[in-house]
Design brief:
Layout lengths: L12 H25 L4 H10 L17 H14 L1 H17 L4 H7 L7 E4 L5 E5 L2 E11 L7 E8 L7 E8 L4 E3 L13 E11 L3 E3 H5 L18 H9 L1 H17 L17 H34 L5 H27 L11 H13 L6 H12 L10
Helix pairs in contact: 1-2, 1-3, 3-4, 3-7, 3-8, 3-9, 4-7, 4-8, 7-9, 8-9, 8-10, 8-11, 9-10, 10-11, 10-12
Length: 397
């Protein structure tokens, strides 16, 4: 069954994954357009909807899959092969959908039945929410909101300000129709993600659409319907890390494919090598890049397997285990970036033309590597601190 066909029967996860590879060339065709227009092509979003990709982290009772994190790594690798910015955007929808699964069931019953619902998110607290009768009034702005241009809802972090109480970080869910979009996404990398700014001006949010930040981070969701589901047992940051890390591996594999597609018949200019494939330096470069990619893949699956194992067992997380998932994410980033840089340096001067995919992959991986959640050095430092008996210097763990 084709992944893009509609059917009365929802495809199984295995059918979805087996069919996804056939969609990669179709998505690649739209990648350059998406970058030039600073948003994912509508056809690519439609393909994700039809394939059921965006339902992987939604509740089964709303037609979702409640997929485990290993499945997300599998799918993210294939999407990363097609287009890193598309894969990134899809992963942010997964994370935001998962977070809404922690909300009271009344909120979920409004959000998830939206046809082809897509939920974007912002987890860094910004703005303020002031109590009013039945809810809060929300004001503020949120930056780097990937996928906002195609989203129906946004979950976002803000600060609840109550008289006589300490400010409390909370997460709220609001329809995109209540927010303004500021088109300020002009970047050197990940341009296609359309990670614009969203603005709230006196937006009313009912009490049912608000959860404490603590409920998400630990987690301790307020949903009764999802209370027994395995996937909502994981800390938000670790569930998010495992959901996104496969993107990097997929991008490194895309760089490998782009390099070998260009290599036949290419000489190494200003040398006697008429065929690049005959040069020892090429052998070293591609051999090293493949090994780094495989190492990155190990870290991606290691993180996913740890998250899934802890969720299945219900055992409490140790701080070392939490820090290890973050370290896996950082090392997958480092190794995938190094592999991609090797392919790019071996691709020659003609690879810098905008129609060549390798240059876009390089810029996109560099953009991801400076994201604070993906930073190899910060994640490794956090893991090292914990190994040395110190507490982590971050709440995002």
């Amino acid at each position: 069954m084709s992944i893009t066909e509609t059917s009365e029967r929802q495809p199984t996860l295995e059918e979805l994954k087996n069919s996804l590879a056939a969609l990669v060339p179709v998505l690649r065709e739209k990648a350059q357009w998406s970058e030039e227009h600073r948003r994912i092509h509508d056809d690519s979003i439609r393909a994700m909807d039809e394939a059921g990709i965006l339902k992987l982290r939604m509740p089964v009772r709303f037609g979702g899959y409640e997929a485990d994190t290993r499945t997300l790594v599998d799918v993210a690798i294939e999407l990363g092969r097609a287009d890193g910015a598309l894969a990134w955007t899809v992963s942010t929808y997964w994370i935001a959908s998962w977070i809404v699964g922690l909300f009271p069931d009344e909120a979920q019953e409004e959000v998830f039945p939206t046809p082809d619902v897509r939920i974007c998110g912002a987890v860094s607290p910004s703005g303020a929410a002031v109590p009013v009768d039945g809810g809060v009034l929300l004001n503020g702005s949120w930056h780097f909101v990937s996928g906002a241009l195609h989203a129906n809802w946004q979950e976002l972090a803000t600060v609840l300000l109550r008289p006589g109480a300490e400010p409390e970080p909370v997460i709220v869910a609001v329809p995109m129709s209540s927010l303004e979009i500021v088109d300020d996404w002009h970047t050197s990398g990940m341009a296609a993600s359309g990670s614009v700014t969203t603005v709230a001006k006196d937006v009313f949010v009912p009490d049912t659409h608000i959860i404490p930040m603590e409920s998400a981070i630990r987690p301790n969701g307020l949903s009764k319907a999802n209370a027994d589901s395995t996937i909502w047992r994981s800390p938000t940051i670790l569930a998010g890390s495992a959901a996104t890390v496969g993107i990097l591996v997929g991008m490194a594999k895309a760089a490998r494919e782009a390099f070998f597609e260009r290599m036949p018949g290419r000489p190494i200019r200003y040398t006697d090598y008429e065929h690049q494939a005959e040069a020892p330096i090429t052998h070293i470069q591609v051999g090293t890049a493949v090994m780094k990619t495989e190492q990155a893949e190990y870290h991606a699956y290691h993180a996913a397997e740890l998250v899934d194992a802890k969720a299945a067992s219900g055992e409490p997380w140790t701080i070392e285990e939490r820090a290890r998932v973050r370290a896996d994410e950082g090392w997958a980033t480092r190794l995938a970036k190094e592999a991609i840089d090797l392919y790019a340096s071996a691709s020659g001067g003609s690879s810098i033309y905008r129609h060549e995919p390798i240059q876009r992959i390089v810029r996109d991986i560099h953009a991801i590597s400076v994201h604070p959640m993906f930073s190899p050095d910060s994640n490794t430092e956090t893991f090292g601190r914990v190994l040395c008996g110190l507490g982590p210097n971050t709440m995002f763990i």
